[in-house]
Amino acid sequence: MPHARTGAAIAAALLLLTSPLAADGSGDPAAVSSSQGEYSDKQGNPTFKIEKDGTVDWYTSVGYLRYTANCMQCHGPGGLGSSFAPSLVEALKTLSYSQFLDTVTNGKKNVSASQDLVMPAFGVNPNVMCYIDAIFIYLRARSDGALGRERPENVAPKPDGYSAAENACMG
User: Which residues fall in a compositionally biased region of kind Polar residues (predicted)?
Assistant: First the structure.
């Protein structure tokens, strides 16, 4: 697995997307519907649901785990950024779900006289793509200030059918 080079690439791509010209983000994160334990907002974007007692939905918890395994080495703990990659907590304030998905899937490159910033494409990596919604959900909760940097302690039960869908995706 590429390490420092991958991190720099991810950082560069997301840095570009956090400019003032970026979209307005995914909007109101309030969960209005659920399908097999995955919540969606009024626009159909994946979103989190955190109960008053701090219990997070299953996908937010999985997103934390998958972010930590696949993204943290470049984007830092809790998505706060690093010397390799920008803050995803800040990026998701302006980045829409479709932009996030496109960047992670296809990668992005920005080369100038002073920098060569590249985000690699993860579109064929099942360790990322099978969990892309969960990663987005976790980062959305972080970006919206609804979730701290720590691993969620209280997690809703695994939804019926989750394991079968995960196994099918991972092959």
Answer: 32-46
CB 97 within 8 A of CB 87: no
b vs e for 31-62, b when ≥16 Cβ sit within 10 Å of the residue's Cβ?
A: beeeeebbbbbeeebbbbbbeeeebbbbbbbb
Question: What is the per-residue pLDDT for 34?
Answer: 93
> Which of 53, 12, 19, 30 is CA-nearest to residue 144?
30
pLDDT value at residue 162: 96
Domains, the chain, with CATH or none: 4-152 (1.10.760)
Q: Are 128 and 138 in contact (CB under 8 A)?
A: no
* Cβ neighbours of residue 18 closer than 8 Å, sequence gap 6 or more: 86, 87, 90, 91, 93, 94, 95
User: How many angstroms separate the CA atoms of 168 and 35, rounded?
Assistant: 18
d(CA 17, CA 15) in angstroms, rounded, equals 5
Q: Which candidate, 119, 109, 51, 56, places its Cα nearest to that of 85?
A: 119
Q: Residue 49 is encoded by which pair of tokens?
A: 């649901």
Report, as ranges of residue numbers, the positions in the chain whose pLDDT lies below 50. Answer: 1-24
| Beta-carbon-side half-sphere exposure of residue 89 (alpha carbons within 13 Å) | 19
pLDDT of res. 13: 42
Element (H, E) at 88: helix 88-91
